[in-house]
Design brief:
Largest sheet: none
Strand content: under 5%
Low-confidence stretches: none
Number of helices: 3
Distance between the termini: 25 Å
Order of helices and strands: HHH
Number of domains: 1
């Protein structure tokens, strides 16, 4: 499951505009790519959990912040 979350985090980092901005902010603060990847995986996990908990489909505007 860890590998799947990391892959999902990488996908968010490279394809989702809000996640790209978040990753750019972390890069600006000096975080290396591995740390950013794990942070994106954590973000993906929180989003997936909230989607299941609330029974809501993916809404990029909800996760922009």
């Amino acid at each position: 499951m860890r590998v799947a979350l990391v892959d999902l985090g990488m996908g968010l980092w490279h394809n989702d505009p809000a996640s790209k901005d978040y990753a750019a902010l972390m890069r600006h603060r000096g975080k290396p790519g591995g740390i950013i990847t794990i942070a994106m995986a954590h973000r993906a996990n929180k989003i997936a959990y909230a989607m299941v908990r609330d029974q809501q489909p993916w809404d990029p505007d909800r996760w922009a912040g």
